[in-house]
Amino acid sequence: MPMKTAAELKQIVKDKYSEIALQSKVQNETSCCGATGACATDIVIMAEDYANLPGYELDADLGLGCGLPTAYAQMKAGDTVLDLGSGAGNDCFVARSVVGDSGKVIGVDMTEAMIDKAKANARKLGFANVEFRLGEIEDLPLAANRIDVVVSNCVLNLVPNKEQAFKETFRVLKPKGHFSISDVVLTGELPAGLQKAAEMYAGCVSGAIQEAEYLRIIKQVGFVNIQVQKKRLITLPDDLLSNYLSAGELAAYQAGGTGIYSITVYAEKPETNCCAPNSGCC
Question: What's the CATH code of the domain at 146?
Fold first, then answer.
């Protein structure tokens, strides 16, 4: 089976998340191996509980994240916040509760159904300073140097060109701006059966890269003060893995020390762009 192109992988993710946009959080969790689900299907839910965070909106929570980036993002009143892969708007509404009426929150998502759902949620809540834009993370529909804080929850691992995604994040952040991003990374190599499974890619696992490589890209793009704010092991159920691995492959995978982790990473854009690639001054 040939490796899929970046465009093909994007279409797989877009199609899957268009379907998910029409489902509730309960449907996603109980049908897709979420925190309370027990079946094995093509989406792996690794979400943490948002319910106690100010600004939480149940209708905007599809249970698709792998962390709580807004809880670590060090936002303040008046900030302009960007959510990469904003889905139905959950992190945007939590961010809005922090930045207040004087701030602004922008969500970007490449899936039309998600944008429609997020806009409907914003209208219902009456938020004039929360907006949602259709676009791709590798080519953000925003001007440079406009954003104070970027957040994202289990999305960048779905982007084929992660370096370009972080370059765009760097571009739109103001000097001294920062991000807090929750994502899925690996230690050790996933078995080939998982790497080639398109459904698992949409489920945030096979799109993940090694943690060391993930952090290297962030540094290479020009970010500084890089910190892993939180890290936790994600355990995939055997009945899910058996969809993609033979019994022998499953045993080898379990004994091989490979780990799938959720990490929340913080990094800052320098006050000047001197450390940016090709800047000629570092």
Answer: 3.40.50.150
Residue 29 belongs to domain spanning: 6-268
The predicted model scores a pTM of 0.81
What burial letters (b/e) apply to 198-217, b meaning 16+ CB within 10 Å? bbbbbbbbbbbbebeebbeb
Structure tokens at 24: 């509730």
Specify if 81 maps to a domain.
Answer: yes
Residue 282 lies in a domain: no
Residue with token string 């998910």: 20
pLDDT digits (tens, 9 = 90+) for 170-199: 999 999 999 999 998 988 877 777 766 645
For residue 264, is it within any domain? Answer: yes
**Residue 239 is assigned to a structural domain of this protein:** yes
Average pLDDT over the chain, rounded to an integer: 82
Give the chain's domain count.
1
Long-range contacts of 19-26 (CB under 8 A, 24+ apart): 20/62, 20/64, 21/62, 21/87, 21/88, 21/111, 21/113, 21/114, 21/116, 21/117, 22/113, 23/62, 24/62, 25/58, 25/61, 25/62, 25/63
